[in-house]
Structures are given as structure tokens and as C-alpha cells.
Design a protein that fits this description.
Elements (H helix, E strand, L loop, with lengths): L1 H14 L5 E7 L5 H18 L4 E7 H4 L6 H6 L5 E5 L22 H23 L1 E7 L4 E5 L13 E3 L3 H9 L3 E3 L6 H7 L4 E5 H6 L8 E3 L9 E6 H6 L2 H21 L1 H13 L13 E2 L4 H23 L1 H9 L1 H5 L5
Parallel strand pairs: 1-2, 1-3, 6-7, 6-8, 9-11
Antiparallel strand pairs: 3-10, 4-10, 5-8, 5-9
Length: 343
């Protein structure tokens, strides 16, 4: 009898699949292309499919949860959810050294931006481990952060005296050094702020601005990347990561690198060209109806002035706040890639 029961128990165990690993995942802005085209398909279909049922995912986004933007990674570190992804700049109040990931103007192409991110990755991994008890899985781009204005402008100099919503702290410092007034307005509140004159201009990705309807409340577009590429960091709670088996870790990392991170970077450059066409009508718009914003091309003089301010004022200011050790690490990694050294 005992033998029969033991045999029955063994047979039942063999016939029952192992319990799936369930991941609670919080994505970035649900309305924007990065989530729609890459995040949602990866977590909802690609990874569960690649795991043959070994991984299930409960996916939401931080805006659907109503999370404060500065709370996303601290809550991840506390284990409120397993995985989170959003713009790294949302976390710089807790980690000023993280600003070194997204430096304006130093990358004008997607390939250059990817090289900067890859150089910064060891720094970013250490920051997330130590500040947010998290393991970095991927760093993907929003498109370059360009300037939308509900005010007539013809050059960078015309931003002087205007109220401008920045996409991150370093961008705000750059705008202020150029004579503009940096204003803190959340992404979702920008259309109302532009319409009501709370701000004259705002910085975000061209595709994000198109998707969010900023063209309805702004007239001029300057595609100078004053806000960098707004990298989105995907990280997993470190305790959760360490609790996974090595095979599961390898599966998640290999899949997210190839099917999410690499895929998002591969479309980044074409996305910028297409998004500008969609906003201005200068070219074909594959995303939908083209709009008619006035395209303001930055001059060589505009770029030179902004780059000089970045190198002589903005980066030294960041180095002072982040500390000499982080400035040295930045010089030895990102700085070498872009040919810039913080003195």
C-alpha cells in the first residue's frame, strides 16, 4: 500500500508542470511608441513564449498605476513589483550621479547614443544596485529630446527669456545657462501648460510629442537634441533577480537584449526622421496624419553655443554635485567615447 501511494505521488509529480515564474512588471508611459511597439509585446508575448510557459507576466504601466515619477525605482527596490522601466532622469533626485547617462548634444545619431549608453552601462548598473536594490536588464532610447514651442522662434537665441519645460535636470541646467527659464512640468501636463502660457516651449521626443498631441498646442519645432535621448532603464528587483536560477536569468537577459533593447535601438534613427516629418509635413508620415508645425533648423552657431555652454558650465556643475569619483568614471567611459573631458 505504501509502495502504491509513493508510486502514485511520483507519477502525479511528473505529470504536473513546474510552477511558472510570475513577474509583476511596470512599464513606461502607456501612450508612447516605446511601450506600444516594444515593451508591451515583449512582456506580454515574446518572453512568455520564449520560456514555454515558464514565465508569466502581469503588465501595467506607471501612469496607469498613478505612481509618482520619482517613486518608480525606490518602490522597485522595496519589492512592490518585480520589474520597472521608465526614464532614468526621473530618478536623479535620489541619484544625481545618474544624470551622466543622459547628457544633451553629445550624440546626434542613434549609433552615437548607443555607444554612450554602452559606455555608461557599468556605472548605471552600480547606481541601480546601490541606490535602488535593482539589477539593470536593459537601457532603451526614447527619440532625441527636441524643442516644441508655442511661441515664434527662429534660432536657439530666441529661447532666451522664455519659459521652457525641460526633460531632465541636466537639460534644465543647459536651458538656464542659455538664458531660458527652466520650468518643472510633468509630461502629461505639458499640453495644458503650453496652451495656457505656463510654459512657452517644452522638450520631449519628437515621437512622444506627436503621439501626445503637442502639435495641437505648439507651432514651432527645433530638432536640436537639447534633452539628449532620454534613456529608459529596465531593472528587476535585486532580491527577485538573485532568487532566479541561472538558466532563468540567462533566458530573461538574452531575450530582453535581443528582442527589446536591440530592437528599440535599431529603429531609433529612422523614428526621428519620420517623427519630424509627421510633425511638420516635411516628408512622409508612416504613423498617421502629418501636421504642419514650423520646422526651425538649428544653425552651426546655435549648436556651437549650446555645446560650449554644456562643456564649460553644465557638465562641471554636474561633476560638483555628483562628486569627483563619478566625474572621473564618466571621463574614463562616456567621455572617452564622445571625446569630452570634465575638467
Amino acid at each position: 500500500m505504501r509502495y502504491t501511494l509513493a508510486l502514485l505521488a511520483t507519477t502525479t509529480a511528473l505529470a504536473t508542470p513546474a510552477l511558472a515564474e510570475n513577474l509583476s512588471v511596470v512599464g513606461s508611459w502607456s501612450s508612447l511608441p516605446l511601450h506600444k511597439q516594444f515593451e508591451a509585446p515583449f512582456w506580454s508575448e515574446t518572453l512568455p513564449g520564449a520560456s514555454d510557459g515558464g514565465i508569466t507576466v502581469e503588465l501595467t504601466t506607471h501612469n496607469q498605476m498613478g505612481l509618482g515619477l520619482g517613486d518608480i525605482y525606490p518602490l522597485l527596490g522595496q519589492g512592490v513589483y518585480d520589474v520597472a522601466m521608465t526614464v532614468a532622469d526621473y530618478a536623479v533626485s535620489d541619484a544625481p550621479e545618474l544624470e551622466g547617462l543622459d547628457v544633451p548634444l553629445l550624440a546626434l545619431t542613434a549609433d552615437d547614443a548607443r555607444a554612450m549608453v554602452d559606455a555608461a552601462r557599468p556605472m548605471v548598473s552600480d547606481i541601480y544596485r546601490d541606490r535602488f536594490n535593482s539589477h539593470v536588464l536593459a537601457i532603451a532610447p526614447y527619440p532625441p529630446q527636441v524643442v516644441f514651442c508655442n511661441h515664434e522662434i527662429a534660432s536657439l537665441a530666441d529661447l532666451e527669456g522664455l519659459k521652457v519645460r525641460a526633460s531632465g535636470r541636466m537639460t534644465a541646467k543647459l536651458l538656464e545657462a542659455l538664458g531660458a527659464e527652466g520650468v518643472n512640468v510633468s509630461f502629461s501636463e505639458v499640453p495644458g501648460a503650453l496652451q495656457n502660457g505656463v510654459v512657452d516651449c517644452a522638450v520631449t521626443g519628437a515621437g512622444s510629442g506627436y503621439s501626445a498631441g503637442w502639435w495641437e498646442v505648439s507651432t514651432h519645432l527645433m530638432p536640436l537634441p537639447l534633452g539628449g535621448w532620454d534613456p529608459v532603464v529596465t531593472a528587476m528587483n535585486l532580491d527577485k533577480w538573485n532568487g532566479l536560477g541561472s538558466d532563468m536569468q540567462e533566458l530573461i537577459q538574452s531575450q530582453i537584449t535581443a528582442e527589446f533593447e536591440d530592437a528599440a535601438w535599431a529603429t531609433a534613427q529612422d523614428a526621428l526622421v519620420n517623427d519630424i516629418a509627421c510633425l511638420t509635413g516635411n516628408g512622409d508620415c508612416p504613423a498617421g496624419e502629418a501636421r504642419s508645425m514650423t520646422l526651425v533648423e538649428a544653425t552651426d552657431a546655435d549648436f556651437a553655443r549650446a555645446e560650449d555652454v554644456l562643456k564649460t558650465e553644465v557638465l562641471p556643475d554636474w561633476a560638483e554635485r555628483a562628486g569627483a569619483d563619478w566625474a572621473a568614471r564618466w571621463n574614463d567611459s562616456v567621455g572617452k567615447v564622445v571625446g569630452v573631458s570634465i575638467e
